[in-house]
């Protein structure tokens, strides 16, 4: 080694010694996590397990309750690997929640679990679902349902109601005929609209658009009075999330032509929907009611990824007229999760990790959350999308799977970032608290 090289090496080692002796936070973050990740992960997870969760999106329900959702799965739809009936994680969930004594869901075994849940449903009262939340340390939970159920404690479960039905007041024969998915979805939307008309004592569709709009706005306001904390669009299942801004006269003429009968053409129906959608945003702003959007992949055989891409909503969320409206783009835009986190750069846009949190395994959820939390940590929320998959594997088990996955994934993402020198463990815990609880609590108003 030349003397020059010796000097260079000594300087380098000296520099290394200096950088090791000062705190990690003072150095530039490294691109690789170190060998300390498992230890940091264990320490963080212990703390993160104690954080009370605020769940931004669920369908808390018993499996035979048709109010659980405004739509249903079309027959024969394909499912991701992790949600197959044979996923052993569901057995782990049933063991953890109920002490399930078997290692599979063979019909003669699953009966044990089904009987237990049926007995809880028959017993009535609100203690059962409160108990499920308690076991998983879920403090508050939004329940996206057609109506809140008597067995759900309104102190813990806050109602998110559906508004897509207002987009389908006309003769829907052409809509239903589009494909097998629409044949399932659209009649269910018609039923919800009928239900809202009954709720508002509206016998037949009002004679003009002004009357229809008044009915729509009144229903939304009444649902808020009944405890609704947000309105929800599943529109991505029915049409593109790109909404144009048609003049009122156009919508007025379409309504006048079809409210009493006749099948509207595709262009007319879409124009009318675009208009009603704008009226709903306006009402959401007036009532300070956040708007939830399904904005991710969807079930069914005909779901359009392009139509459901959250970027379609950019013209709406960035419209200065709606700067007072809070847009909650649920399911993280999955698989467009990077597009989604940049949508939340707009100050009134939020997202959550529901659905994707059980579509992918925690190792992949960790990657997504690591990216999100490094960009806009104050705009991301936990969501379970808890849902009953069959009579045995219910919303209970999916609450478990989603919350366990999210706690471990966020701990892992933060452990890597701490090890890389992005920030210290104290800051990591604060960020986890924001994701699992604080951001949602702030968005919907802290509970008394
Ligand atoms: Zn959902």
Net shape: globular
Rg over CA atoms:
25 Å
Total strands: the figure is 8
Bound molecules: zinc ion
Q: Extract low-pLDDT stretches.
A: 1-22
Helix content: 40-55%
The neighbouring-strand order within the major sheet is: 1-2-3-4-5-6-7-8
What's the topology here?
Elements: H1 3-21, H2 37-48, E1 53-58, H3 88-98, H4 107-123, H5 127-135, E2 138-144, E3 157-162, H6 173-176, H7 180-199, H8 209-225, E4 228-233, H9 248-258, H10 266-287, E5 291-294, H11 305-308, H12 314-317, E6 327-330, H13 337-343, E7 349-352, H14 356-359, H15 362-373, E8 380-381, H16 395-420, H17 425-444
Helix pairs in contact: 2-16, 2-17, 3-16, 8-10, 9-10, 15-16, 16-17
This protein binds zinc ion (ZN).
General description of the model:
The chain has 448 residues and is an alpha/beta fold. Helices cover 49% and strands 9% of the residues. The chain has 17 helices and 8 strands. Strands 1-2-3-4-5-6-7-8 form an 8-stranded parallel beta sheet, sandwiched between helices. β6, α13 and β7 form a beta-alpha-beta unit. α9 crosses α10. The longest helix has 26 residues.
């Amino acid at each position: 080694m030349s003397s020059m090289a010796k000097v260079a090496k000594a300087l380098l080692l000296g520099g290394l010694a200096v950088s090791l002796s000062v705190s990690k936070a003072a150095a530039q973050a490294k691109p690789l996590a170190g060998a300390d990740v498992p230890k940091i992960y264990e320490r963080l997870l212990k703390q993160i397990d104690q954080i009370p969760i605020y769940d931004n999106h669920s369908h808390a329900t018993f499996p035979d309750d048709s109010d659980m959702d405004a739509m249903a799965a079309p027959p024969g739809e394909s499912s991701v690997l992790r949600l197959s009936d044979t996923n052993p994680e569901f057995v782990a969930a049933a063991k953890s929640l109920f002490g399930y004594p078997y290692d599979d869901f063979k019909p003669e075994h699953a009966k044990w679990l089904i009987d237990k849940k049926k007995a809880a449903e028959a017993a009535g009262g609100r203690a059962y679902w409160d108990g499920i939340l308690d076991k998983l340390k879920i403090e508050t939970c939004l329940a996206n349902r057609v109506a809140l159920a008597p067995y759900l404690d309104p102190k813990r479960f806050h109602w998110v109601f559906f508004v897509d039905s207002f987009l389908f007041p006309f003769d829907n024969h052409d809509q239903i005929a589009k494909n097998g998915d629409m044949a399932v979805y659209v009649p269910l939307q018609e039923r919800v609209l009928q239900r809202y008309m009954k709720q508002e004592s509206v016998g037949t569709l009002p004679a003009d658009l002004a009357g229809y709009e008044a009915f729509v706005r009144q229903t939304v306001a009444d649902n808020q009075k009944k405890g609704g904390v947000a309105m929800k669009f599943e529109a991505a299942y029915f049409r593109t999330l790109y909404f144009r801004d048609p003049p009122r006269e156009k919508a007025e003429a379409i309504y006048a032509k079809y409210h009493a009968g006749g099948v509207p053409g595709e262009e007319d129906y879409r124009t009318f929907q675009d208009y009603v959608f704008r009226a709903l945003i306006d009402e959401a702003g007036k009532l300070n009611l956040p708007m939830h959007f399904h904005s991710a992949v969807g079930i069914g055989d005909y779901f359009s990824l392009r139509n459901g891409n959250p970027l379609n909503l950019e013209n709406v969320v960035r419209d200065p007229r709606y700067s007072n409206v809070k847009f909650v783009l649920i399911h993280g835009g999955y698989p467009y999760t990077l597009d989604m986190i940049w949508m939340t750069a707009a100050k009134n846009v939020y997202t959550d990790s529901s659905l994707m949190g059980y579509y992918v395994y925690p190792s992949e959820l960790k990657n997504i959350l690591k990216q999100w939390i490094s960009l806009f940590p104050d705009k991301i929320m936990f969501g379970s999308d808890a849902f009953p998959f069959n009579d045995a594997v219910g919303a209970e088990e999916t609450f478990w799977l989603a919350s366990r996955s999210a706690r471990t994934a966020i701990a892992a993402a933060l452990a890597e970032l701490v090890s890389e020198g992005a920030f210290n463990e104290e800051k990591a815990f604060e960020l986890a608290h924001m994701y699992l609880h604080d951001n949602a609590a702030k968005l919907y108003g802290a509970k008394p």
